[in-house]
């Protein structure tokens, strides 16, 4: 029997998500600091924080740089809150940095563990390939996913983010696999599909909401046409 294809998987939006961070932020601010903010304000503030984090996450390569980035993101959050954020301390056990970290709780998608275990049972070797900071290792442990992967390639530790091919080729090297034999699954076209193709890996786009705008089929045609699945269970139906 031919060996099963190695499978690379993105992290956020693919194997894990987070639990209503804006709602958690509102609750924590009220409980810890007596600060009341509305739903729209909480969502807007978290959106600003996430946007800043995504631009800067590759700076967080160890504990001190991660702590510095989290404090910086808390400052962005405070500014985005407007008047309710005025004067809020960033540091300390009830500071905004600690509250922000507590507000963001990662969980696997409902089908993630079932699918990963099924893929491993079939003989697939698995790797995470993610644009994330060094804390991804802790997230994978805390969500029970770490032991299900044979390799983890993190952009912050490599100094290169998808769609750069380096995270893909690093994971493949750790798996002892060739690009032509591998599959990469991710939820963003620009990072995951484009990056997989650049590394010579077959791309699979995970589109949970059915809302991704794909390029024109003619423009999209190449040696690695994109397959679209609606959740990870779609992987179990692939040949």
Question: How would you describe the overall organization of this protein?
Answer:
The protein is of the alpha/beta class and 239 residues long. It contains ten helices and eight strands. It has helices at residues 21-33, 39-56, 63-81, 96-103, 112-122, 136-142, 155-158, 166-175, 189-198, 217-220; strands at 7-9, 16-18, 106-108, 126-130, 151-154, 183-186, 202-206, 227-229. A six-stranded parallel β-sheet has the order 5-4-1-6-7-8, sandwiched between helices. Strand 7, helix 10 and strand 8 form a beta-alpha-beta unit. Helix 2 packs antiparallel against helix 3 (63-81). The mean pLDDT is 93.
How do the strands and helices of this protein lay out in sequence?
Layout: E1 7-9, E2 16-18, H1 21-33, H2 39-56, H3 63-81, H4 96-103, E3 106-108, H5 112-122, E4 126-130, H6 136-142, E5 151-154, H7 155-158, H8 166-175, E6 183-186, H9 189-198, E7 202-206, H10 217-220, E8 227-229
Parallel strand pairs: 1-4, 1-6, 4-5, 6-7, 7-8
Antiparallel strand pairs: 2-3
């Amino acid at each position: 029997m031919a060996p099963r294809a190695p499978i690379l998987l993105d992290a956020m939006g693919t194997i894990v998500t987070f639990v209503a961070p804006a709602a958690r932020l509102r609750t924590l601010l009220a409980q810890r600091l007596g600060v009341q903010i509305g739903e729209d304000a909480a969502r807007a503030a978290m959106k600003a924080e996430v946007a800043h984090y995504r631009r800067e996450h590759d700076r967080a390569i160890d504990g001190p740089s991660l702590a510095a980035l989290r404090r910086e993101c808390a400052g962005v959050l405070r500014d985005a809150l407007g008047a309710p954020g005025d004067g809020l301390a960033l540091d300390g056990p009830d500071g905004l940095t600690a509250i922000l970290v507590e507000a963001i709780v990662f969980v696997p998608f409902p089908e993630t563990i079932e699918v990963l275990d099924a893929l491993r049972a079939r003989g697939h070797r698995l790797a995470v390939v993610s644009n994330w900071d060094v804390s991804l290792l802790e997230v994978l442990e805390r969500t029970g996913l770490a032991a299900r992967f044979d390799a983890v390639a993190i952009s912050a530790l490599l100094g290169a983010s998808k769609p750069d091919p380096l995270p893909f080729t690093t994971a493949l090297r750790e798996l002892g696999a060739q690009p032509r034999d591998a599959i990469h699954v991710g939820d963003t076209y620009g990072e995951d599909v484009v990056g997989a193709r650049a590394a010579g890996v077959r791309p699979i786009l995970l589109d949970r909401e059915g809302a991704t705008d794909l390029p024109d089929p003619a423009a999209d045609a190449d040696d690695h046409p994109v397959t679209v699945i609606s959740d990870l269970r779609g992987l179990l139906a692939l040949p």
